Amino acid sequence: MTLATVITLIRLALIPVFAWIAVKYGQSVDAGSAEESLRWLAVTVYTLASALDGLDGWIARHFNQKSITGAILDPLTDKALLMTGLITATFVNWGTDWHLPVWFIVLVIVRDLEIIGGILILYRINKNVPIEPHWTGKVCTVTQMIAMGWIMLKFDHIDLIFPTILATVFNIWSGYEYFMMGYRQLPGKSCS
Hints:
single chain, 192 residues, mainly alpha, 6 helices
């Protein structure tokens, strides 16, 4: 097992730790005595797990530690970390009415299921699915992280609807782009 894979496994182990701390913080908010140290600990654990993503990638490239396990595990860990963060930002009480709306997390999940379903369908038809990230997908991820950070860091001086709308726009846009990318890979289909 490579060092890069070990770091990815550490990141994976930090996800339930983050979720547990976030839930405990939400419970303290519900009880009327928010333990801000728990909120900052949740932010720290999430930030550490996110930062280790860059480290494991750098180690894999710099020390030629690329592996099939890492190639599969790393993006799955990325998605699990982001989804766990978004779910806690939606369902954990971070303050008085301070959470992402449920429709937002539903939209995120529907987009991800569309992408996974499309890949499975294309693989069944073509036995090959060239997957290339689209810039809107990368921006979508960044805007989702901004919305989630908005919650956890309590940037309540600007309404939460603004980062939520921005993330929604890129969620829909990237979902469309990935749909069209898949559509073009169907036999006999070609569109611009």
